[in-house]
Amino acid sequence: MSGPVIVGVDGSDSSLGAVDAAAREASLRGAPLRIVHAFGRAPGHLPGGAPPWSPADHGLEPMVHGVLARAEERARAAAPDIEITRSVVAGGPLEVLEAESREAALAVVGSRGLSGFAGLLLGSTAVQLAAHGRCPLMVVRGRPDPDGPVVLATDGSEAGKAAVEFAFVEAALRGAPLVALHVWNTWSESAYEGPGDPLTAVVADAERLRQAEQQLLDETVAPLQEAFPQVAVERRLLRSRIRPALTEASRSARLVVTGARGRGGFSGLLLGSVSQALLHHAHCPVTVVRGGE
Predict the structure, then answer these.
(1) Closest to 181 measured CA to CA, from 195, 199, 167
(2) What is the pTM of this model?
């Protein structure tokens, strides 16, 4: 994917951490970095005939550009070689970043911003942008400077194909190994998280199901493994509850990549329960990749 890496900043520590990650992502891709600060009301919310709203109208321009200057300083320290632009856009964070994502290769945000309520694990902008953004979204969270493999959460769904390709590209850019992790259980052949214990649920032939899930994993990964021979790949099939297993795998990962919605999603949902769980609970950054619409 061509285009800049964009990062949303609001002056919070979380957003400045996102700037560091976004600068490194831009450097890996040889792409420019665009630092975006959403401020005030969206233009569509202004009265008819009103002039465009800007921070300068309220004497806030020095403060806003101070936020951007600090963000740019962080970006240049993290990746001195990249081209950086910065912009203040009138509007709410979701609307602004969704519009910016239409021309971007990757959007990056922190897990929480200044507008978040105490105790929330993830800001609403990150969740909504994962569902509505037009490019992959990286949410920077978890332990600082994570190391380890790129973990791909794969379920073999058609919607997840874009995430598989993205994970291989990320591993290749980083020179990192890739763990293609497919979690299954005996409730069904879909990512169902119903009541009871999926580890002991009665099925006609658990071994047949395991073999089918292994075949699904192999068929999902094999074409990309041929296309990216430089990436060391571990195909890992795990019988477990899906969300806890993926969260646990993130403890030793540098990045988890997941589709927005997989086999277990209901028609019409833009963000599935598995991707939401990772965004809230993963121990490393998470990238959500939406499939073709």
Answers:
(1) 167
(2) 0.84
